[in-house]
């Protein structure tokens, strides 16, 4: 999550809900996790309401809509059901993502280039409710250019291939691919989000806080 002047921290609470659903209980509560994250300084909360409802539920999102003090980033598939739900809650940010019921987590980026008319219509419709719409895509120039053409102001780059890289060569290649994608997206006039944008500075700040706390102990 970025602005033109600074990096913002968005916290994804989906897998707090995954634990709750696996236990079949009402805890751990993702809404409480979101409020704790805000109290700790998070600039926004990300939730993904999947078609199969495997973690976050409608009730969670509706509660978050009423209690969040920061901004919600609502991840959703491009379906009529989700479009109508988004129009109901009017989140500050919406990220359109691909979905399949078989996947354990989102395994790749949205194919914007292969369905430009459909994505363009979704971006236009969701922009009318005042949400900033981003597209979750691979760090591929063809997809980045298509994202600009459909009118999305922002993109989020999928970093799964980097995370799965096993050899130093593969790691270097995938990191370069993400970095090149960030640079190309910025050159297209897009806001670019990715897990590793600002990652080094975030780790440095966390380490400094740990050392400061240890010194006071």
From TrEMBL:
Site (Transition state stabilizer) location in chain: 156
InterPro entries, per the entry: Aldolase_TIM (IPR013785), PyrdxlP_synth_PdxJ (IPR004569), Pyridoxine-5'_phos_synth (IPR036130)
**Which reactions is this enzyme annotated as catalysing?**
3-amino-2-oxopropyl phosphate + 1-deoxy-D-xylulose 5-phosphate = pyridoxine 5'-phosphate + phosphate + 2 H2O + H(+)
Q: Which Gene3D superfamilies match?
A: Aldolase class I
Q: Which UniProt keywords apply?
A: Cytoplasm, Pyridoxine biosynthesis, Transferase
Q: Select a single GO molecular function from the record's annotations and give it.
A: pyridoxine 5'-phosphate synthase activity
Residues engaged in binding 3-amino-2-oxopropyl phosphate:
12, 23
The GO cellular component terms are: cytosol
Look at the named UniProt entry and state the broad enzyme category this protein falls under: transferase
Quick one: which pathway? Cofactor biosynthesis; pyridoxine 5'-phosphate biosynthesis; pyridoxine 5'-phosphate from D-erythrose 4-phosphate: step 5/5
What is the role of the protein in this entry?
Catalyzes the complicated ring closure reaction between the two acyclic compounds 1-deoxy-D-xylulose-5-phosphate (DXP) and 3-amino-2-oxopropyl phosphate (1-amino-acetone-3-phosphate or AAP) to form pyridoxine 5'-phosphate (PNP) and inorganic phosphate.
* The protein's name: Pyridoxine 5'-phosphate synthase
Give the organism's phylogenetic lineage: Bacteria, Pseudomonadati, Pseudomonadota, Gammaproteobacteria, Pseudomonadales
């Amino acid at each position: 999550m970025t602005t033109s002047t600074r990096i913002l921290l968005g916290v994804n609470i989906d897998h707090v809900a995954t634990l709750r659903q696996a236990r079949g209980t009402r805890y751990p509560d993702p809404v409480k996790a979101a409020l704790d994250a805000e109290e700790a300084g998070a600039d926004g909360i990300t939730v993904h309401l999947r078609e199969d409802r495997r973690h976050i539920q409608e009730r969670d999102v509706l509660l978050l809509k009423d209690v969040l003090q920061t901004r919600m980033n609502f991840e959703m598939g491009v379906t009529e059901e989700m479009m109508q739900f988004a129009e109901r809650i009017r989140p500050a940010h919406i990220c359109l993502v691909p979905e399949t019921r078989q996947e354990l987590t989102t395994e790749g980026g949205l194919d914007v280039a292969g369905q430009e008319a459909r994505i363009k219509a979704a971006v236009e419709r969701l922009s009318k409710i005042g949400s900033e719409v981003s597209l979750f895509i691979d760090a591929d120039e063809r997809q980045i250019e298509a994202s600009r053409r459909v009118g999305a102001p922002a993109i989020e780059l999928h970093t799964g291939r980097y995370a799965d890289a096993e050899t130093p060569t593969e790691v270097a290649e995938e990191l370069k691919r993400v970095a090149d994608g960030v640079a190309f997206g910025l050159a297209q006039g897009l806001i670019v989000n990715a897990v590793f944008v600002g990652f080094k500075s975030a780790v440095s700040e966390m380490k400094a806080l740990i050392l400061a706390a240890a010194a006071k102990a």
